[in-house]
Amino acid sequence: MSASALRKPLGEMMPRMESREPRSIRFSPSEWSAICQAARLRAEEPSRFVRRLAMYALSIVQAQASAEASIGMTGFGRL
After folding, report:
1. Would the pLDDT of 67 be above 60?
2. The domain containing residue 71 runs over which residues?
3. Contact (CB, 8 A) for 49 and 27
4. How far is C-alpha 54 from the chain's CA centre?
5. Could you tell me if residue 53 is inside a domain?
6. Widest Cα–Cα separation across the chain
């Protein structure tokens, strides 16, 4: 069988893109100022910066839950 016949179609290799919908989240003026300053230092839009940090925090929480489940400990170092 040829190498091209063994390759997966491009659609199977790339994750499916989902559309993003606006969500309501509120920050105090001082919180938003700190977010904007941190985003600006990274040459990033504040909304994209917040989304990226939220997804990063979610991955940490999920990893903690997975670790707790695998070793039977609960609440250790929980965010």
Report:
1. yes
2. 47-79
3. no
4. 6
5. yes
6. 62
12 belongs to a structural domain? no
Question: What is the pLDDT averaged over residues 39-57?
Answer: 96
Assigned domain for 61 exists: yes
Cβ-based burial of 58 (10 A; exposed 0-12, middle 13-18, buried ≥19): exposed
The H-assigned helical ranges of the chain are 3-6, 10-13, 29-41, 46-71
Closest CA to 67 of 56, 52, 77: 77
Q: Within a domain: residue 72?
A: yes
Here the tokens at position 68 are 């707790």
User: Taking the model in full, what pTM does it have?
Assistant: 0.62
**Is the pLDDT score of 3 beyond 90?**
no
- Examine the pLDDT at 79 and tell me if it is beyond 60: no
The number of folded domains in the chain is: 1
Q: Are 64 and 79 a contacting pair, CB within 8 Å?
A: yes
